[in-house]
Design goal:
Layout lengths: L7 H5 L12 E6 L1 E2 L11 E2 L5 H18 L5 E8 L7 H14 L2 E11 L6 H9 L4 E7 L3 H6 L6 H13 L4 E8 L6 H13 L4 E6 L7 H7 L8 H17 L3 E4 L2 E3 L6 H7 L5 E3 L4 E4 L2 E5 L3 H8 L5 E6 L2 H12 L6 E2 H7 L5 H4 L1 H9 L3 E4 L6 E4 L7 H6 L3
Parallel strand pairs: 1-4, 1-11, 2-3, 4-5, 5-6, 6-7, 7-8
Antiparallel strand pairs: 8-10, 9-10, 12-13, 13-14, 15-17, 16-17
Helix pairs in contact: 2-3, 2-11, 3-4, 7-9
């Protein structure tokens, strides 16, 4: 059944009403890594020989031009990703964080996250991060099995994860998260169980769990094309995901988003901005941003980015988002949250539009299939994935396109 079309009044709008607000979230990309992992298709480059200080110069120029074009109000969340931002040395780290504070006013209770790889956060660097405002670290652990880590191109070992968490706590960080991966080449359920046990021993407030996706332009994709990447079958991967959900739930973690689990009060506030389809600044090489009804992607290469930032905003693409597209995005990303989407939030974003009228056909079909269910009452009324729908999330999200 075809999706219902929005009313003419909604189609006529040039931008999404709610997204006329100034972003209260900030993403910054540091594209350097110690090495390139076999599965990684992120915009990242091995740091050896790279013009890191020139990149930070360019990043400051983009900050200056960004706040001139769209002056910020109070920023509530910051996320520094990569790459591996913690390849910056303490001097570079201090310089970078000082620039962020100079151009973007942060709220007193802002969540300020930085991604890190185990082994790249010595005490001096952690001190620079704390002094610069960082209060949340997300470590890319991926596994606690050293053979698996080597097989996916990671250069750290399990002990480095444990030591890095200990160092972070010693430096005063309490809001810590690690990423774990499943569905890795030759990975067994027993290996995953062992990694999860060791991860839970760290007693962290947040865990992110991702299945391996074989992306183009990676070593794993070339191996996959040649039939040389021995991955678990689909049933094994589903069993891994269900086991992760069971154990983390039993350990007291809320499954608040398809891939994320947190103790109460520790859900990622920044990522929730994305899942609620709210606007955010995006700075750095290859960074994406969304503000005033327009999405942009920055130039990806390090030197091309540096050159472009010398004469203007370093944009690769700038794309206005129609109301219809924004409505679809709202549903696709919002249903990733276990609490789902609320009709009141939809109406607020889209000038009073009725979610049930806009998407009546697809909603009815998904309800009949048992993949979503009505949730909440009054202002909290909306829709969320059912237990059956959670492992079939991609099918649900795609239904709104």
């Amino acid at each position: 059944m075809a999706l219902s079309q929005p009313s003419g009044a909604h189609e006529a709008a040039a931008v999404v009403p709610l997204h006329a607000w100034t972003p209260r979230a900030l993403y910054i990309h540091i594209p350097f890594c110690t090495n390139k992992c076999y599965y990684c298709d992120f915009n990242s480059y091995v740091v050896a020989g790279q013009p890191v200080d020139a990149y930070l110069d360019a990043l400051e120029r983009e900050m200056e031009q960004t706040v001139r074009a769209l002056p910020p109000e109070t920023i509530r969340t910051v996320f520094v990703g990569g790459g591996t931002p913690t390849v910056l040395n303490p001097r570079q780290m201090t310089r970078f964080l000082n620039a962020v504070a100079r151009y973007f006013p942060l709220s007193e209770d802002a969540e300020f996250t930085m991604e890190a790889n185990p082994g790249t956060t010595d005490p001096a660097k952690l001190d620079a991060m704390r002094e610069g405002g960082v209060n949340r670290i997300s470590f890319g652990a991926q596994s606690f099995d050293d053979k698996l880590l080597a097989a996916i191109g990671r250069i750290h070992e399990a002990k480095d994860v444990v030591n890095s968490i200990a160092n972070a706590r010693q430096a005063g960080f309490t809001n810590l998260s690690i990423d774990l991966m499943f569905g890795l080449p030759n990975q067994t359920l027993a290996q995953l169980e062992d990694s999860l046990s060791r991860a839970l021993e760290l007693d962290l407030p947040h865990y992110s769990l991702y299945s391996l996706k074989v992306e183009e332009n990676t070593l794993f994709h070339r191996l996959y094309e040649r039939g040389e990447l021995p991955l678990p079958d689909e049933d094994e991967e589903v069993a891994m995901y269900e086991r992760l959900r069971e154990r983390l739930g039993a350990a007291g973690y809320e499954h608040y988003e398809i891939s994320n689990f947190a103790k109460p009060g520790f859900a990622s506030r920044h990522n929730t901005v994305y899942w609620r389809n709210e606007p955010y600044y995006g700075l750095g090489a290859g960074a994406h941003g969304y503000a005033m009804g327009v999405r942009h992607i920055n130039i990806k290469g390090v030197q091309p980015y540096i050159d472009a930032a010398a004469s203007g905003l370093p944009r690769l693409e700038t794309t206005p988002v129609t109301v219809r597209e924004a409505m679809e995005d709202f549903m696709m990303v919002g249903l990733r949250l276990r609490e789902g989407v609320r009709k009141a939030d939809f109406a607020a974003q889209f000038g009073g539009a009725d979610l049930d009228e806009v998407f009546d056909g697809v909603l009815n079909r998904l309800l009949e299939q048992g993949l979503i269910e009505a949730s909440g009452t009054g202002e909290a009324a909306g829709y969320r994935l059912t237990e059956r729908g959670v492992p079939l999330g991609n099918e649900v999200f795609g239904a709104f396109l």
